[in-house]
Amino acid sequence: MPDNNTEQNIPHSDRISADLKENLAKIQRLFTETPDMVTRHLTIKQSGKQALLIYIDGLNDKAAINENVLRPLQQEMGENSQEIAVTVGHVEHLYSWEKAEIGLFQGNSLLFIDGSERTYSLDTKGWPQRNIEDPQLESSLKGAHQGFLETGDLNIALIRRYLPHRGLKIKRLMVGERGQTTVSILYIEDIANEKYMAKLEQRIRQINVDAIINTGELCEFIEDNPFSLFPQLITTERPDTTASQLLQGRCAVVVDRSPNVLIAPVTFMSFFQNIDDYSSRWTIATFLRLLRVFAFFMAAFLPAFYISVVSYHFEIIPLKLLLTLGESRGQVPFPPFVEAILMEITLELLREAGIRLPAPVGQTVGIVGGIVIGQAVVQAGLISNAMVIVVAFTAISSFILPNYDMVAAVRLIRFILMILASMFGFVGLVIGLMTLIGHILSLKSLGTAYGTPIGPVRLADLKDTIVRVPLWLMDKRPLSTAPKQSIRQRQSRIKEDTE
Amino acid sequence: MSSSITRITLFIVIMLLLSSCSDQLNLENATTPLVLGMDLDKNKKFHFYLTAPVFSNRIKKKSIEMTGTAKTLRQSRSEQDAQTAGSTQGRNYQVILLGRRMLNYEGWFQMLDVIYRDARNTVTDRVIVVDGSVPEMLYLNPPDQPMLPILLRGMVDSTSSHSETVSTTAHELHRQFLDKGITPYFSQVKIIGGKVRIQGTALVSKAGIYKGMLDAQETVLLRILQKNASPGFSLSYQLPEEPKKSPFSTNTVSFSAGKVKTKIKTSFKNNRFKYDIKVSMVVGLSEHLFPFDVFNDSKRLEDMIGQQVTDHFNALIAKFQKLKVDPIGLGVYARAYEYKAFKKVEDDWAEVLSQADITVSAKVTIASMGPIK
Amino acid sequence: MNSYVGKQITLFQFISIISGSQVSVAVLNLPRKLSEAADTDGWIALIIGWALSLIAGLAIVGVMKYYPNGTLFDLLSEYMGRWAGVLAAMLFALYFFYLMYDGLVRTILVTKTWLLPTTQSFVLMSLLLIPAYSIVRHGIRNVARYAELIIWISLWIPFVYIYTLKHAHWVYLLPLLKEGWLPILTAVKATIYPMLGMVSIFILYPHLKYKEYATKGIVIANSITMLLYLFVTIICYVYFSPEESHLFNDPVISVLKSIEFKFIERIEVPFISFYLFIFSLIWIPMMYLLTYCIAWIFKRESIGIPLRLLIILLAVGTFFYFPTYNINNFLVRQLFWVGLILEYIFPVCLLCYLWLSKFWKEERSSL
């Protein structure tokens, strides 16, 4: 059994006493106002010793305590041995109060036995937990329908199901003074470049906060450029995505109590990928990827483009469109920029309203948005038809993007570009794009270039970014992750005569 | 310290940027004339005319016409602004209408300078000469036809796509005026019976003086000589060899050409330019009103048609030489192949060309005769 | 004195920077300049100009081979003492400033002519400096990546020019050598300015990942530039009549005015806006090189402070003074001489000096 804390370096005050009464007094002193703590006195039948079992109500599996701890201890079972006769999977010997306390609050039950200078930390964890469900934000058509849960160990188990190999290594760190969150860094030893590992670990160790409630918080602490609009790390809800990323030489960070897993390092193009790309045929997957890139530009640039055309460069509009556009613009009392801002803000309001509301009410929001705003506003002559089309197009485009964080970034970029377009037309638009490109090129994710494979250009990596070539042609892992072992496969497909 | 400098600079830059958007002009605030018309009145006074669409569904009439007199087009801008709600922009012209009367005087081309000099003006607007007065056309507004600019543009584009007129853009006009080896040409329209009609192609001299007009058939031939005929044009001729039953022209044969090859051989001998032009076309018969056994006797028909085409070509050339114009651009060939000789005479090329020795011969091959024998 | 680890650039990035800074603004009026001197034979001069630029480029690479792990200034310090390095750094800083300023001014003038006629120059200048600062700030690698990416995303532009061939008059190119060789030789002068920018190798060389490819790089870069110029020039010549081709200030843009698509009436408006990317390929790399020179003089690793000062200087300076088209043309004419000396004559002389000094040393040691 593991005995992972040596007795020598524990200060006296923190040491668990051999006297049960003393321990009980200490417990009562330490845990005041803790009504959810259950203290149970018992006599171990085997040895006849007095014992004390404490656990936090609700964090434990009651059936396990009854069946696997209390019953074996109170009934005569097995031979008379040194070890206690509990039938839980994992028992740890702890000598210090500090460690014991951590274990207690993580859902272990502590067994103190009179005359023993240690406590047995019994793994009887079992807290309220939802079932494994389809991931909400990243649902897939053909992929698995399992999403991560709020329990770190289970999440790791879900990943391991995809990678049953001892190469998958896990480095465990504790973060947070009060929260004591277990953060596990997962990587495949012979693929992942250790410099990312080292960087991740260093950055996570640097975090000194009360608690990490969610993966998103961790993200903010370890991102390379916290001022950027772009997400520089991916959080995913999908074990299969995580496994696939691990195989590409990236690291995953599992944060206990959070249903999101962090992937690092990533590139800008990673945000356009989806696990379904690999399970559908490569032609359609390529088409979808191109569509997403197109959608990204639409979502970011379309309203700005509309503004600059209508208020600066209307000479480029073909004649017939000019007449239609002019007619629909003619009755609107606002300049295009104000019109666009109004509609875009309405769109954002509708979106936010829809997210928080329960599903039946959410539908009402859709109806109100669609009919009242969409139609009435045009009929009242407040907004032009063209603008409604532009906004609708923008909204649809932004829904296509698979990653929520990227969509959020695009929303903000859209507003910046709209301002630039309303001041300088196409010139503003190009300057915006130039700055955007410059910004993406300068970004880094865990020290690797965020823009690969398009800036710096890595032709080999383009195979699985904007397009997806057939899987049997992707013989190498992406160069951008600098993997230790770069061959992914060799000749995985038999070439048969076509006759 | 350095980051605070950056921030202050950024702030100043943003403030400066926000303070300026002087080039903004919203579509609905602009008046975008689609037709620019120019003409002289009886007292030789320069008038300009504009038609702009009206962006409102409360007003029934979809366009507004403006007119006025001015010394130059650019000067007319203030006159234009005074007549409309928006600021007038020359960015969306679809057609430029020239009054026939204006073409009696040299120098009208210089008046167009603003079209080329103001970079924001379009140069793809079609140049059209109106046989008659421009205002009459502008105020025609027939209820059963689309807006004038759409009508004119559409007419010129579709007619020129089967080579029956030319689609000269403002930019092309510039080239024709500047290139010493060619004289300008553009399409011509006229109001006939209350309807706008394309008449053909107007020919003007290098100085811009109106010289004459080509009808649809002649324009097709011109475009063949320019190597610019789009496949699919159709020609019809009356063959004198065949019987004619009055009042119907039953001796007519019509054909549409597929592939046309034009070879122009240029030489300079005895102080005269000599052109030897060979045209060969592969045609499909679309109509022959007289009985003819095309199946067995196609060679004879080919020769007859070829003879007709050759005659018409030569008549056309004679017309050019008489009018002293060179819409084919034979001067360009002269420059390319007889540079030294051309260089000496380039400034009155049209005159020299009228003395030149030009022969055209056409060869017709019948490729198909339709489903009826 | 600099370490180049982690600041390396690839061969393609090297080519992109050189070709990009050569083409950028110079391409706009090159066909006009050539036709002013040699009419429609101007394109022949391009080939001669290309041969000359190859000699100069190879000389530059040849010089750098004497000191592969440092810039020109390190080399000069090594061979002649630090004063020579500092002098050269100051000279080149001025030269890079000249190139950059010319690029910026021309960009603004073109933008003002075609897109935003009444917007103030200093506003446009500040606008252009925003992306420039955000790219240059992160050093040579970022600049190189930017140049590379822009080259990739600009590859579609030539295809649009092919579209103008619908109105081409190939017969305009004839006769060849219409006035003999003399006008063509005078037109070679016009090809010097559009080839300027090779001198950046003096500073880029130590950053190059595989130095053995430097020769290949300069040959490819100059050839790409030449082919592009040839393509554009011939397009302009067959499109405009010979009388017109010296009439349009920026024929490369004017050509586009006549293209009509069904879905977009005037292609040149989005085009000139997109051209800003290509124009930026002169001022962004030059801004880096200039700040590098200044940082080198003060023995600093970081270019942060000179860069900020430069940006402020440009923004504020433009507020008070901005050149007109004529002054810009005058600047370009002067740039021809400066460029000729610094990019063509100086490297060749330096190469001779280095070769001779090595030769003497060997002579002496063999004695």
From TrEMBL, chain A:
GO BP term (any one): spore germination
Lineage: Bacteria, Bacillati, Bacillota, Bacilli, Bacillales
Membership in a protein family: Belongs to the GerABKA family.
Protein name, per record: Spore germination protein
Transmembrane domains' residue ranges: 290-314, 383-404, 416-441
Organism: Paenibacillus algorifonticola
Keywords: Membrane, Transmembrane, Transmembrane helix
One Pfam family in the UniProt entry: GerA
GO cellular component: membrane
UniProtKB/TrEMBL annotation, chain B:
Keyword Membrane: yes
Residue stretches making up the Spore germination GerAC-like C-terminal domain: 200-370
Taxonomy, superkingdom: Bacteria
Transmembrane segments: none
Sequence similarity: Belongs to the GerABKC lipoprotein family.
Pfam families per UniProt: Spore_GerAC (PF05504), Spore_GerAC_N (PF25198)
Residues of the signal peptide: none
Chief subcellular location: membrane
GO CC terms of this entry: membrane
This protein's name: Germination protein, Ger(X)C family
GO terms for biological process, alphabetical: spore germination
Lineage of the organism: Bacteria, Bacillati, Bacillota, Bacilli, Bacillales
Annotated compartments: Membrane
Membrane topology annotation: Lipid-anchor
From TrEMBL, chain C:
Segments traversing the membrane: 12-31, 43-67, 79-101, 143-164, 184-205, 217-240, 272-298, 305-323, 335-356
Similarity annotation: Belongs to the amino acid-polyamine-organocation (APC) superfamily. Spore germination protein (SGP) (TC 2.A.3.9) family.
Subcellular location: Membrane
UniProt xrefs under InterPro entries: Spore_GerAB (IPR004761)
Any one GO cellular component localisation term in the record: membrane
Protein name: Spore germination protein (Amino acid permease)
Protein source organism: Paenibacillus algorifonticola
Annotated GO biological process: spore germination
Top-level lineage group: Bacteria
Lineage, uppermost ranks: Bacteria, Bacillati, Bacillota, Bacilli, Bacillales
Major location (coarse): membrane
Topological type in the membrane: Multi-pass membrane protein
Keywords, comma-separated and alphabetical: Germination, Membrane, Transmembrane, Transmembrane helix, Transport
Entry annotated with the keyword Phosphoprotein: no
Keyword presence, Nuclease: no
